[in-house]
Amino acid sequence: MKDKPKTPIEKVNKLVEMSFGRGFYGNRIFFSNSSGDHMIEADRLETIAKRKWPYLPGLIERYEIIGKFTSEDGSSLKVSPEYLNCAERYALLYKLDSGKDALIKVHG
C-alpha cells in the first residue's frame, strides 16, 4: 500500500530540515506579546525557525529564526547571511523535488 501524498508544506518542511538542520520548519508564525515571544505552527509557509533548548512552555521559550519564505510554494526565501550555504542546499533540493528554481535573498 502506498503512503498518502504529502502536502506541499510537509514536502517543503522536509527539505528545510534536510538543508538547515534538525528541528527547523518553514511554517511557523512568530509573534511577541506582553507574556513574551511565541511561535505557532501555521497552515502556510512563513518563518524558518526552530526552538532553542531548554524549552519549557510558558516559562522559557526561545527560538532561532534564520529566515522567511517570500512565496507560498517555497520557491523564494530570505535568510541570514550565515545560513546562505544551507539556503543554497535547500535551493538544490527544491529544484530536484519540484523541477523549479528557488530564489534566495540574503538579509541582515
Give a brief rundown of this model:
The protein is an alpha+beta fold.
Description:
The termini are far apart. This protein is α+β, with helices and mostly antiparallel strands and about 110 residues long. The chain is about 25% helix and about 30% strand. The protein is built from 2 helices and 6 strands. The longest helix has 15 residues, at about 85-100.
Supply database-style keywords:
single chain, 108 residues, alpha+beta, 6-stranded mixed β-sheet, globular
Mean pLDDT: 89
Arrangement of strands in the largest sheet? 2-1-3-4-5-6
**SSE string, helices as H and strands as E:** HEEEEEHE
Q: How large is the radius of gyration?
A: 14 Å
N/C terminus separation: 47 Å
- The secondary-structure class comes to alpha+beta
How many β-strand runs? 6
Strand content: 25-35%
Largest sheet: 6 strands, mixed
Uncertain spans, ≥5 residues at pLDDT below 50? none
Task: Please render the helix and strand layout as text.
Layout: H1 8-20, E1 25-33, E2 36-41, E3 47-51, E4 63-69, E5 76-79, H2 84-98, E6 103-106
